[in-house]
Amino acid sequence: MSRLSAERVRDEWFKSLRSARSVTQLLLLWVQVGAARVWIPELEVARPSQKGFPDPPPGDRDPVLLTALACPSPVAVLRRLKASNAEIGRAAGLERGPEEPRALDQLSVRRWLADVGPAAADLSALWALRHGGQAAWSAVMAEIRRRGDPLTRSDLAIRGADLQELGIHGPRIGETLATLLDRVLDDPALNTRESLLAIARESR
Predict the structure, then answer these.
(1) Which of 2, 101, 125, 144 sits CB 3.0–4.6 Å from 108 for a disulfide?
(2) What is the pLDDT of residue 204?
(3) Same domain, 169 and 87
C-alpha cells in the first residue's frame, strides 16, 4: 500500500467516493484494510460510523466536499495525495470558514459572503451534507446574488485612481477602500460614485 504513488491513491480515493454504493462503508473499509493508516490517518481520527454519515447518490458526489466531511483537515489530506491547487484551495476555503453566517438576515449573510468569498457555495453545500437539507441561508444568498449587492472592493463604484484625485495616497488608499466596502456591506444603496466619494472625503 505504501508503495503506491500519491497520485494513484488520490485517483482511487476520488473514484471510490464518486461511485461507491455506500460512502460510509467505503470509509470504514479504508480504515479496516489499513489504507487510511498509511494515506489518510485523519479517517482513523474521525471514525465515520454507520449512523450519521450522509450518503449522497453517486451522481451527486463531490470528492473535495466529502473529504472535508470525512476528515478534520482536508487540506492536509489533499496535499498528501497531490491533489490539484484548485482542489486544495477549495479545501482551504472550507477549513477557514466560518461555516455559516451569524444569522439569517440580509446583513449577516452579505457580510458572511464577503468574508468567505468563493468558498460560499462549497460551505453551503457542506452544510447541506452535514444537516441533510438545503442550507438555511440559501434563499437569502440567492437574493443577494440576484441583486448584485457589492461584496468585494472590485464591486465598488470607485477605484483607487478616484481616491488619488481626492489627495488620498499610499496605504491610505487600501484603508479607505476597506472603509467604503464596510459601509456598502451595511447599505448597498451607498454604492454610487457620488456617495462613495462623499464618504471618502469625510474619512480623509
Answers:
(1) 101
(2) 72
(3) no
